[in-house]
Design a protein that fits this description.
Layout lengths: L1 E4 L5 H7 L9 H11 L2 E6 L2 E12 L2 E9 L8 H12 L4 E7 L3 H9 L3 E6 L8 E7 L2
Parallel strand pairs: 4-5
Antiparallel strand pairs: 1-2, 2-3, 3-4, 5-7, 6-7
Length: about 140
């Protein structure tokens, strides 16, 4: 398993593993923007890209994990936790935040395993599914 900055050549692979793309037509453009901005990272699992994540610094000037997406056939293989730990180790600020919906139990468990703790809630982003904000110190 290798984690590296995403390249334009990875765009099609990221589209193929992204489960949100079908419901959000603008998602492909967003992924391209993340790649172009240099904030998108991929987990190379053998010859395939198995996961990607986005680490930005727009959350009140702190590191923020904007996205962790693991391809369905790569789940439960440690790619998500490896990506989150990579972000913890390489975050440029002492505080690192992440968020996920209340309904996303897998991401909540992943963040807890990585040492994140609940920092707060944001209502009204998604109807009847509050966003939980998590916090951890960078390493």
């Amino acid at each position: 398993m290798d984690i590296r900055c995403a390249r334009l050549a990875d765009h099609e692979a990221l589209l193929a593993l992204d489960t949100v793309l079908a419901g959000e037509p603008g998602r492909g453009v967003q992924i391209r923007h993340w790649i172009d901005s240099g904030c998108c990272y991929v987990v190379q699992a053998g010859a395939c890209v198995g996961a990607y994540g986005v680490l930005g610094y727009h959350f009140f000037g702190h590191g923020f994990i904007e996205m962790v997406m693991v391809g369905e056939r790569f789940r439960r293989q440690g790619l998500g936790i490896a990506l989150v730990r990579h972000f913890q180790a390489h975050c440029r600020t002492p505080k690192l935040f992440a968020s996920t919906n209340l309904s996303n139990r897998q991401m909540q468990a992943l963040l807890t395993t990585a040492g994140f703790r609940t920092s707060g809630f944001i209502d009204n982003l998604d109807d009847n599914d509050p966003e939980i904000v998590y916090f951890a110190r960078s390493r």
